Amino acid sequence: MSAAARWLLIGAALVGAVAGVNAWQNHLIARGDAQGAARVQQAWDAQETARSRATARDNAAKFRNAERLVDEDAQREAARLARDAAAATAVRSLRAEVARLNRRPHPYPATDAGLAACAGEATTARELFFEGASAYQELATAADGLSSQVTGLQSFASNVCRAGQTENGSPNDFAD
User: SS3 for 168?
Assistant: First the structure.
């Protein structure tokens, strides 16, 4: 074997060794990349699972709050309707009593103008009292309705303001 052939053989062996080392290095890099990608994917999946669970908890809490608010609103509305019905019954009873008193014959002699005037004034006073009671009942009904609206709005605002907080009162963030 000649020296040139030997150098050529050594050069080819060196090129083969460098190519082999380069191929082995590329294989190790690809394997490290795959391991890194798997770790990143695993961390991503864990974060997405945690975020999904937190979202599910928040949605369940919102649903429970919405159900509770609807129930409280229904209870307030039923109580308001009961109060309105009781007030209307009281006004009807008052009206019946005023009508009964106004139908009652006056026991005064017809010739006594002063007593007849007093009876007329009493009838007028009873009518005015009834009108005042009716107006008061209407005002109370309107105020009761507004009170229910304010209570509902305050409850809604309170729940909205606390919506982004966790049980310990800190803001709810999903960053790990």
Answer: coil
